[in-house]
């Protein structure tokens, strides 16, 4: 019986490879993985869900800048900044945020608000949105200590798109709702 088991194991190794896989990118700590380019990120999102191409023009890269009643608003797409269920920023994302706030007027009042979609509990979403807003604020505070910051998480209370349509889940709408906004007087 042992000989038969050994032969089965040998056959499995021959087909599947060794039982102890070689070190791969999966074995590296996240902070040691190479940072993807913005194009690679965009292509990977499109590859994961072809419907993302329908959003063209609505969500572009890391941030969109708009004006809202005299305020300048930099909207950061949470899906690009943060991993699922996380609030820590990569060094590359932090560098990009620093670049985005370079042109904010000196000593401006800046509000940083975190937002989530409607999946999960209200309390969970409020905690996650607050943690993400604080992470962005920490980067802004280090790079622009002159700015007067107000930081707040709004959870799912201020959607910019429907989370559902016709009673069905709306992934595109939920993606738009997952964001961090940096607002200041223009």
UniProtKB/TrEMBL annotation:
This is OmpA family protein. Residues 166-186 have a biased composition (Basic and acidic residues). InterPro entries: Bact_OuterMem_StrucFunc (IPR050330), OmpA-like (IPR006665), OmpA-like_sf (IPR036737). PROSITE patterns: OMPA_2. Keywords: Membrane, Signal. CDD domains: OmpA_C-like. Residues 155-186 are annotated as: Disordered. Pfam families: OmpA. Residues 69-186 form the OmpA-like domain. GO terms for cellular component: membrane. It comes from the Bacteria. Residues 1-25 form the signal peptide.
